[in-house]
Amino acid sequence: MKLGTLLLRNAAIGLSQLEGALRNQVLYGGRLGTNLVELGFIDLELLSTYLAELTGYPLASQPQLDNADLDLLDKLGSEDAHRLRSIPLGDLGNTQALSVAMVDPTDTRAITELSEKLGAKITPYVVPELRALYYLEKLFGQPRRARFVRPGRPLSEAEPEPPPDDRRRSQPAQGMVMPPAFTLEPRRRRTSSQMTLGSSIAHAITYGAACERIDTATHREQIADAMIDYAKGRCDALVMFLIRDGNALGWRGYVAPPARLRTQIEDLSLPLGGASSLQSAHDAGEPFLGEPPSAAKPVEVQLWAALGVSPEPVTVLVVPIMVKQRAVNLLYVHTLGGPPPSALVTEVTDLAQRIQTSYLRLIKQARGS
Questions:
Q1: pLDDT in tens, 92-105
Q2: Across-strand partners of 290?
Q3: Which residues are CB-contacts of 314 (< 8 A; sequence separation ≥ 6)?
Q4: pLDDT of 52 over the 70 cut
Q5: Phi then psi dihedrals of residue 92, to 5 deg
Q6: Which of 32, 68, 162, 183 is the 20 to 30 Å CA partner of 54?
Q7: Do 282 and 309 fall into the same domain?
């Protein structure tokens, strides 16, 4: 039985709430229970109870997590603990096995790896994703990704549109230039030896291959992988942002050598207030192409510093990905040798439309599963 089915059967949530959480899961990632809590449909304690019932494993309590075995934490290490979403608790009175809190206690591969790394048999305990990430941050001092810090908002037809922000919309758009109208048909494929301005890397994949991968993706991460591979050899930077609670949160990104990231993409959190290329594309729901609209460029400067970009680009491209008339992602692109070529602008706009279509397909599939 799946978590959503169990919650529906016990009338803990309604069908529309489940559909809203599944939709957010497709768009923003995270586990279903995480999205249900973020949307305010259930609380963390109720989720914990149902996870224990669903998996059949004991629940890791907060006192047990507060008293996690420090020696075992050091032995496992921060990187593996975060990767496996696991927190060693200790023997808990069972000298034959070590108890470990796990986001997915049914993951046999993770259990085997934990057993090898800790040198003992493992007794899994279940812990909700949000609580596990909180304790991983607390115990290892490694901040949670921005996506898991801010609560989500429901994305539904019934939810009213936010009132316009006159302060933000009064800012001049300046460099706003609309790219050519997009088409869903792949354009003529170029050879892999062709380069864009400022790039010295051959294309990793053709435009047609990127279209196919996005059109057939079975998970949001496959969509992001396709966009990152598409960016290689075509631009000097591409960043995919998630839009949550008035902020653009870094999801995935690529920067061409010799630039090197100074901040991990997942740690980026840029405000959508004021005037910026990100805000302009978000508010208009249409691509932005041109110079950043603010003379000081505070948001872009923060982004460029994180990307390790030098010199600063003059022209940037930001394309929104719309679902239910809301921007759920922003695709940021720049080339340093000059403005993004018109073919690149058209292709990125095409791919954004394809991502929207794939999101809707994945949401529909999630509802029917």
A1: 876 689 999 999 99
A2: 316
A3: 291, 339
A4: yes
A5: 45, 40
A6: 68
A7: yes
